[in-house]
Amino acid sequence: MKSISNDVKCYHCGDICFDSGIKIEDKNFCCNGCKTVFEILDKNNLCQYYDLNKLPGNTIETAAFQDKYAYLDQKEFADKFTQFSNGNQVFTSFQIPGLHCSSCVFLLENLYKILPGIIRSEVFFQDKRIKIVFDKDVTNIREIVITLSRLGYEPNLSLAKESETDESSKMERSMILKIGVAGFCVGNIMMLSLPDYLSLGYLENFVKLKWTFNIAAFLLSFPALWAAAIFFKSALSALKQRVLVIDLPIALAIAITFLRSVYEVFVRHESGYFDSMSGIIFFMLIGRYFQFKATNRLNYQNDLSSYFPFVVNVKKEDAIHPTALEDVKKNDIILIRNGEVVPADGILLSETAELDCSFLNGESETILCMKGEQIYGGSRLLGSSIELYVDRVCDKNYFARLWNNAHYIYKEDVFKQHYINFINKYFTLGLLVISVGVLGFWLFVDTSRLWNALTSILIVACPCALLLSASFTYGAILGILRKNGFFAKDANTLELLSGTDVIVFDKTGTISAQAHSSVEYHGRELAHYEKKILATLAFQSNHIYSKQLLHFLNEQAGLPVEHFKEIPHEGVEAIVGGIHVKLGKQSYVDIDGILEKCPSSSVYFSLEGVPLGYFKMFAAWRPGFIELAEQLKKRNYQLYLLSGDKPTEDKLLKKTFGESMYFSQTPMQKRTFIQTLQQKGKKVIMIGDGLNDAGAIKQSDVGIVLTDNTNNFLPACNAILKGTRLNHLMDFIEVAGRSKRIVHISFLISLIYNVIGLYYAVQGILNPMIAAILMPASTISIVLFTSIASYYTGRKYLKDLDKKDDKNHISL
Amino acid sequence: MDALIVLILVSMVVAGSFLAAFLWAVKKGQYEDSFSPSIRILFEEKNEDKDVKQL
Predict the structure, then answer these.
(1) Which of A184, A202, A285 to mutate to test the interface with B (most CBs of B within 10 A)?
(2) Which residues of A touch B19 (CB under 8 A)?
(3) CB proximity list for A732: less than 8 A, separation 6 or greater
(4) pLDDT tops 50 at residue A152
(5) Is A563 helix (H, G, I), strand (E, B) or coil?
(6) Which residues of chain B does A105 touch, with a Cβ-Cβ cutoff of 8 Å?
(7) Phi and psi for A3 in degrees, rounded to 5?
(8) Are B35 and A126 a contacting pair at CB < 8 A?
(9) B35 interaction partners in chain A (CB closer than 8 Å)
(10) Pairing of strands A82-86, A610-618
């Protein structure tokens, strides 16, 4: 990608700063961390000691945060964020979504210099988490949260989140532990088995020594069995529910191998298959870990749980009591503010309420409710605060179910079904046929070899290699794509992506981007203070024009905002710094038509009801988009453009999309459009950026959300794509297609190994040495093949991208 | 050849101590975050803070 002249780069770390609005004089910064570090370096002429305490600036609306987090003064809430305390020392931990570079780590780990009372803070970069130890006599949770927020690292306070991340980090820890233990076992058992294999029968002369080797292997297999407990557990619980899971054949293979080995060692005084058994366990656990890693990473980015209401304001005798969600009771009267999620079902007591139900149904159209109407929990309030008379309390699980059902789960389930079916249908069937055939054969030929042959089949025909090939390939490919700015939700996305034939683009924000656009101002000259007012208001809104405007005004937002109101498709208004300001369409701002009518896209504004001017918006296409469209068309992709805006006469667009452009589309129409395409048998990729595309994204086979700022709220989707990487979409699709091929080839490899193993097994002549060679050889060659193939695929298609990301901006 | 039996025992003990070290490291959370320590090493730190930070 060629760099674009009007990209604003962070003065400190060189990252592109989109609309952070953080700047000192003429220097821009991508985050507060970089700015602060710059200030320190600047102030001290790069000297060694960073005295953060004497910092000026870096205050973002302290007062607002004071209010917002007042509830943390109450012990019951503060306690929820206390992990444990030891005398005066209290341990706490927060999720920090804003964490993104080395300067952030630096600043946050020096927190103890900024806020007295903090003893130690430690950043976990990959989890975007900070652990803090503080002295409860000197400071408290609220002060810490406010300090963090003030520095630009507002923590994500939600209990659902806390337990979830705890769970997943515990899970990861236990997985690593088990892998380590299993690896220890497999290595040592192999070592102990080698003398037997290599001596070619010579060891038979030393009965005592052989016995020692066998017993040691036997004892070492127990820790490995402990590590394999998860397979047995899941197999057992599946059996109870009478469903087949892939863990069942694995558990069976492990169990049979163990029992057969015990029989060999203690009855026949031969060496067992302990090395093969612990090998299976070790490699399967690694495969599991890869799977876990591949699906777990995305959580912090498009997790709705951060919107879970945590504290609810209950009104009692005209006073407001912040109350924990689970303590809200029926018949309570609760107060809900702008932007908050309605925490319970109830009856509206205020005159009107404007609700955003996009979390519930994916529609961006807001719903207007009147006094006395029933309101359902899970929607989000826009505009002024309301009072609600609670008639049904929702708990967190209810929200999780509601939101999850609406958007997330269904596609995943389809995948699991498909996957299990594949393994079950072909593998289990094949195994059954072979077993029955072998049973029949040896029953008539030589019954003494029957038992031997049957168990051998189960030992050899473990579906490990099959399972590993998928989880390793997809894990590796997902990792490569992620590194290049394409965050796919799961392996299924890759599979779906490679089978698509239609791509539908949203216009504003997707193929046009604010970072590459220009704005023209028409109207009377603006004073510095007025610019600041407009910037502050624009900062409140997520609309693309607001961002564009913010970029154009080049002012830092920082004035107090009251009575903020956003009317979708119209505009926003608020009282900023005591002045009533409106920003939006002419029909919204300038009702009487005082200003001239601007024919193209524009944003009007008024101060205290007086329309003063308008900003003419020129969209610019994302760099490389036209080339991308050409590439896609060459690959027989059908391209469509769906836009909620007015039609524009743009030659470039016309050339790219031809007649396949549809304007003034409502979210519902967008969705129906996708549906119609799908009814014609098309597999559709929808690429959009905001909530107005949420329905269409959900409807499509692969929904991709384009974003310039990963901290924004994103609608449910299959994948998130960095805005700057849109031009590489074709490469991403190509890589996804390749990954499918890699999986197929490795399936073939593992099949070959299985055939070789079965050749010995059905004859009843499988011995521990053959098993011990075959098992690791198959898994290792599969893992090697998939890793190397994935790496080369990534290199081939995303070569130049890789280099760019490698610098990783360690700039401190 | 009986010496081998002793050697096996000794090797088990050595291997076991490495396993124990690994378990300790996992329990301590050393595998939780592999990125931050690589940046952390670049930070200047005053010695006087050391005592507090080691708590």
Answers:
(1) A184
(2) 180-181, 184
(3) A481, A484, A486, A497, A721, A725, A797
(4) yes
(5) strand
(6) 36, 39-40
(7) -80, 145
(8) yes
(9) 125-126
(10) unpaired
Residue A338 host element (H or E): none
Helix or strand run (H / E) with residue A156: none
Instruction: Give the length of chain A.
Output: 812
DSSP string, A259-326: HHHHHHHHTS----SHHHHHHHHHHHHHHHHHHHHHHHGGGGTS-GGGGS--EEEEEETTEEEEEEGG
Question: Exposed/middle/buried for A676, CB within 10 Å: 0-12, 13-18, 19+?
Answer: exposed
| Contacts (Cβ under 8 Å, ≥6 apart) of B6 | none
Q: Estimate the share of chain A in helix, then strand, then coil, as percent rounded to the nearest 5.
A: 55, 20, 30
Name residue, tokens 């521990």. Answer: A768
Read off the pLDDT of each residue in A237-264 and give the average, rounded to a whole number: 84
Q: CA-CA distance, A124 to B31, in Å (whole number)? A: 11
Q: Which two tokens stand for residue A15?
A: 């990252």
**Predicted confidence (pLDDT) per residue in A533-547, tens digit:** 888 888 777 666 777
One-letter identity of residue A505: F
Residue A377 one-letter amino acid: G
Inter-axis angle of helices A247-266 and A229-240, to 10 degrees?
120
Alpha carbon distance A70, A480 (integer Å): 43
Q: How far is B26 from chain A (nearest CA, A)?
A: 7
CB-based burial of residue A206 (10 Å sphere; 0-12 exposed, 13-18 middle, 19+ buried)? middle
Intra-chain end-to-end CA distance of chain B, in Å:
52
Supply φ then ψ for residue A346, to 5 degrees.
-175, -175
Average pLDDT of chain B is 77
Spatial neighbors of A426 by CB under 8 A, at least 6 apart, are none
Closest chain B CA to residue A100: B36
Contact list in B for residue A112 (CB cut-off 8 A) is: 49, 52-53
Q: Collect all residues with Cβ–Cβ distance below 8 Å to A233 and sequence separation of at least 6.
A: none
Q: At how many degrees (to 10) do helices B2-27 and A159-199 cross?
A: 170
B27 interaction partners in chain A (CB closer than 8 Å): 173, 177
DSSP A18-47: -S--EEETTEEESSHHHHHHHHHHHHTTT-
What DSSP designation does A331 have?
Answer: T
Q: Domain spans of chain B?
A: 2-53
Question: Nearest-CA residue of chain A relative to B23?
Answer: A177
What does the alpha-carbon distance between residue A462 and residue A448 come to, in Å, rounded to a whole number? 24
Cβ(A363)–Cβ(A668) under 8 Å?
yes
How far is Cα A554 from Cα A19, in angstroms, rounded to an integer?
A: 9
Banded pLDDT at A408 (limits 50, 70, 90) = very low
> Measured between CB atoms, does B3 come within 8 Å of chain A?
no
Q: Does B32 touch chain A (CB under 8 A)?
A: yes
Secondary structure letter of residue A728 according to DSSP: G
β-pair type (A380-382, A502-506) = unpaired
pLDDT at A410: 38
Count residue pairs from A and B with Cβ separation < 8 A.
85
ipTM over 0.85: no
Q: What is the mean pLDDT of chain A?
A: 76
Residue A602 to residue A608: CA distance in whole angstroms: 20
pLDDT digits (tens, 9 = 90+) for A590-617: 777 777 777 667 788 888 888 888 888 7
Contact indicator for A181, A230 with CB cutoff of 8 Å = no
End-to-end CA distance of chain A: 26
Alpha-carbon torsion A68, A131, A298, A106, what sign?
positive
- Select the residue of A125, A177, A188 nearest B36 (Cβ to Cβ): A125
- Neighbouring-strand partners of residue A335: A313, A387
* Residue type for position A65: F
